[in-house]
Amino acid sequence: MATVSNWIDHLNKPAEDVAGAIYPGVGSEGILVLILAVIWIGWTVVSSKQESDKLSKLARRRPSSNAWKSNITDG
Amino acid sequence: MTDELGALTTIFTEFYYWITVVLMFLIHVGFCMYEVGASRYKHHQHTLMKNTMLIPLVTVTWFLFGWWIYWAFPTGPGLAPSIMNESAALITDDSAFSAKWYLPNSELMAVNLGDHISGVFWAAFLLFSWTAASIVSGAVIERITTFAFGILAIAIGSVFWSIDAAWGWHFDGWMLKILGYHDAYASGVIHAVAGGFALGVLAVLGPRIGKFSSSGEPRNIGPRNPWLVTIGLFLIYTGFWGFYAACNIPIYDLGPEYGMEGVTYFTATTIYVTPTTLSGITMNFLMSLSGGLLAGYVVSKGDPFWTYSSGLAGIICASAGNDLYHPIQSLIIGMIGVVIAYKMHYWVERRFKIDDAVGAVAVHGYAGFAGLVICGFVLNGYPSSGYSVGAMWDGTTYAAINPLGMFIGAIIMFFVLGMIPGYIIARVLNGIGKLRIPREVELAGLDYQIMEEAKEDERTVASSSS
Fold it and tell me: CA nearest B209: which of B43, B45, B361, B366?
């Protein structure tokens, strides 16, 4: 995975070789982007479902518009 | 980097943008405080959470496609050829500022010893994206679902503002060439577009329960915590300093950039690579803030919420031309913008029953729109770019700044890229039943369950003896 294993060797290379990516796994960017897209879409689906469930559960209970006042904590 | 002067310039520029990013984070902190202060107690935590979650959502999508859009779309596509490759297609070739380098799988989108600037520049623009989404966030509090807001935040933060920035903020943007558009500190490209987007969403979302009487008379649901609102707005002012600095290029040699043989001229420039000074824009920032506060205090008869918001509206209105205005011009323009924003807010509220909970459409949308139009008159005849000067509608050269071009630009920002997309996306979300929370939850409060659980925890702790 390591792109650089020795900084002295690396910085001794010609300037055009030094100037470049140094993160682990250079060349695997496409897979990383795919993983990010899956995380983003997956999060959206899961969080949307969680929110819908929570809202419909609360809506079914029908608390009055002043009921929240009895839930104020003392601090 | 092998020569000292080049290294110093690069590292200075890198650090300069990094500082602006940190400062601009205060805009988001300010928006969070402001919105919580403006919302009612039973919705506080949800309001904060909604605005917090736009951070990861806009960031991820800005990484995936928002940044690419900015670099790909300056030509329209199809409206004016690029000065880099003379093509009117999307800029995805091998030229220096091509979108190709800003695809999410590009090696420049990471730690790269050959590029010290792209990352901080990406971050500065990302903070603009958060701001655009945050502007919408305040308008829709207490009744929108987090899911819908997330979709809308991505739309404005990673798509539509990015397109408008490519069109009207990029040095190669078609709006500069065809219209002579000029918007140095984003009256339009951030504020008018986000304000317009918010208005489009509000038209579908509807008002908070109780906002209007049965006869249609608006009721005031004022801020519940004036101190949070005040500190929030002061933090937004503070972050705006960083925003202004981030809109500049800190040091640039314009001689070779403009193709002038043997001329060396180092200066700070606007985003359009036209000369300005950080010193001068700082004066204009403060004078337009002051103009906004002065006008807001009078027009609202000393109402704190509107006075503080008017400071922001004053800056926003003068921002389009604050790279060139005289400070007194900035002050006067700020004052004009505030009067327009305030009057428009209440007219639209009464006429169309629009419930803009924090006045976001007014402060950002109407003030931004007015600022663009005013800029067209005050800066009439100035070049919109340093690369060339040409006629309006030509497209191959850059038109001079003019009233008609700026008015059309304001329409594009507020309506074409703001209000219409906001309305359409909100309609789709509403159509699938995902836009608005259930009525019962809105009445009970979005925090009802969290508060109930906290109370239960408190009872448990209070009744324990050990």
Answer: B43
* Neighbour order of strands in the sheet with B266-269: B249-253, B266-269, B275-276
pLDDT tens figures, B296-336: 999 999 999 999 999 999 999 999 999 999 999 999 999 99
Output phi, psi for B325, to 5 deg. -60, 155
B267 forms beta bridges with B252
B213-250: per-residue pLDDT in tens?
Answer: 999 999 999 888 999 999 999 999 999 999 999 999 99
Contact A51 B454 (CB under 8 A): no
Say whether B61 and A40 touch across the interface (CB within 8 A): yes
Of B411, B435, B413, nearest to B424 by C-alpha is B435
CA distance B238 to chain A (A): 31
User: B4-454, which class in CATH?
Assistant: mainly alpha
Q: Specify whether the CB–CB gap between B60 and A36 falls below 8 A.
A: yes
Which residues of chain B are within 8 Å of residue A65 when distances are taken between CB atoms?
Answer: 443-444
Instruction: Note whether B440 and A65 are within 8 A (CB).
Output: no
Which amino acid is located at B197 in the chain? Answer: F
Is A55's CB within 8 Å of B437's CB? Answer: yes
